[in-house]
Amino acid sequence: MLIAQDVPPGTRVLDTYQPMDLASCLQASALGYGAMVRYIDNLTLREVEWITIDGKMGLMLIRTCRKAGWMPTQLIGTADGQSIAAAAARLGLPKGVSGFLDDEEPGGTAEDEIAYLNAGTDAINTYCLAGGYIGSDTRMSSDQLYHRLRMTRYWKAGSNEPPVAIRGYAMYQEPPLNRILAGMPERLFDVSVANGDALGGRCVMAVAA
Question: Given CB 3.0 to 4.6 Å as the disulfide criterion, which of 67, 110, 170, 203 pairs with 139?
Answer without folding.
Answer: 110
